[in-house]
């Protein structure tokens, strides 16, 4: 009986919070209302914020120097600080505050030639702090409706679209299981309060999904997987997107309507891949391997926008963002583009960042934090582009426009 009362209390508070947010998020006249009531996040280590911490997994980042620039230290984020999603949450929470405190923010070009930390330092700290908004919690750490008020992050390092992706790391939460975790949350809420109220709330929420990188890095390209013996590049891309389509439709059938889909980056340019060669040149072979997947995802989203009533899918073209950054890195304030800030071996990418390792001191000038992941400075830069950028980096509309629908 006590457990039933606890669950009922949790579900009541969670849905009340969501419904209150739905009622108020559009009223930003005083600069203190969020653009969306909540965000639900699915993905891999690029946006994981601690879901692997308590798993029997080799894919963890809950140790120093991860989080060296994050308030509170290591959390499980695979970054020295913010992830891309952290910054998007802050932007969605406080757009009108930028207008109050940062003149010209709304019209500032996403490719403005300013060092990332100079251009956006205010954008990812002060507004969220002034609003008192918490960062979205990891699913493994959220135990109450109050903690989940602004959404939940289900992302897991080493996770993939395919369930067997990332098995070398042992524990991880594949995308299918992430969806099941979200579904379990909704089942509890819907059983107690009914589907109409939940559906009303979810239709206004934003769903961020970033999957696919591990299906290449920790599946197709791994020597102990035989995937490449069964599929060529196009066939594997077709397999992935077939699964991906079904997974996104599951989220739609659960009530999701506003989707932000993060594309994969230039994986042939990360330190882990560069370290496999004696040159500092991106692996065109790896970049070409992944290209059919990116093309298929774009086609998939176009079809879903047409065939799923009431839905809106937008695509963040991470590949284009990285190509622009690597070409114009000095313009953005970076100086090191081909090695990690923290790691061991060639390009600091042969072994990724180890516990208590001393990272580079000038982290703002590095594109890559470790063997696989970008620095906080890049995450913030890319988040801003996705938020208010043009169709060269996010389309058919940007995140700010999606939030306003």
TrEMBL record:
Domain of life: Eukaryota
Keyword Lipid metabolism attributed: yes
A cellular-component GO term for this protein: extracellular region
Keywords from the UniProt entry: Hydrolase, Lipid degradation, Lipid metabolism, Secreted, Signal
Keyword Repeat listed: no
Protein's cellular compartments: Secreted
Signal peptide: 1-25
GO biological process entries: lipid catabolic process
Gene3D superfamilies named among the record's database cross-references: SGNH hydrolase
MF term (GO), any: hydrolase activity, acting on ester bonds
Similarity comment: family membership: Belongs to the 'GDSL' lipolytic enzyme family.
Protein name: GDSL esterase/lipase
Originating organism: Capsicum baccatum (Peruvian pepper)
């Amino acid at each position: 009986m006590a457990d039933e009362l606890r669950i009922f209390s949790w579900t009541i508070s969670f849905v009340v919070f969501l419904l209150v947010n739905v009622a108020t998020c559009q009223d930003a006249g005083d600069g203190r209302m969020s653009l969306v009531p909540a965000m639900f996040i699915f993905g891999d280590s690029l946006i994981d914020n601690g879901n692997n911490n308590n798993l029997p997994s080799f894919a963890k980042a809950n140790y120093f120097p991860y989080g060296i620039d994050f308030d509170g230290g290591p959390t499980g984020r695979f970054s020295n600080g913010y992830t891309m999603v952290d910054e998007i949450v802050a932007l969605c929470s406080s757009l009108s505050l930028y207008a109050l405190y940062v003149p010209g923010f709304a019209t500032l070009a996403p490719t403005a030639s300013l060092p990332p930390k100079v251009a956006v330092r205010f954008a990812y700290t002060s507004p969220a702090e002034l609003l008192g908004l918490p960062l979205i919690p990891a699913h493994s750490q959220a135990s109450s409706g109050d903690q989940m008020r602004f959404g939940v992050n289900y992302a897991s390092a080493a996770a993939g679209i395919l369930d067997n992706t990332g098995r070398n790391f042992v524990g991880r939460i594949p995308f299918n299981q992430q969806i099941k975790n979200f579904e379990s949350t909704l089942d509890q809420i819907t059983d107690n309060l009914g589907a109409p109220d939940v559906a009303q709330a979810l239709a206004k929420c934003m769903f961020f999904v970033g999957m696919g990188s591990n299906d290449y890095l920790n599946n197709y390209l791994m020597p102990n997987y035989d995937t490449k013996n069964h599929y060529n590049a196009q066939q594997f891309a077709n397999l992935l997107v077939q699964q991906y389509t079904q997974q996104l439709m599951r989220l739609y059938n659960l009530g999701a309507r506003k989707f932000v889909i993060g594309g994969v980056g230039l994986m042939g340019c990360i330190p882990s891949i560069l370290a496999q060669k004696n040159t500092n040149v991106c692996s065109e072979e790896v970049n070409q391997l992944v290209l059919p997947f990116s093309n298929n995802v774009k086609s998939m989203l176009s079809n879903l926008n047409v065939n799923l009533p009431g839905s809106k899918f937008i695509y963040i073209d991470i590949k284009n963002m990285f190509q622009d950054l690597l070409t114009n890195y000095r313009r953005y304030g970076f100086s090191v583009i081909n090695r990690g800030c923290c790691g061991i071996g060639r390009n600091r990418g042969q072994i990724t960042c180890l516990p208590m390792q001393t990272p580079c001191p000038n982290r703002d000038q590095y594109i890559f934090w470790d063997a696989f992941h970008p620095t906080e400075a890049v995450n913030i830069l890319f988040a801003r582009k996705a938020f208010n950028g043009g169709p060269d980096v996010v389309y058919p509309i940007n995140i700010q426009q999606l939030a306003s629908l």
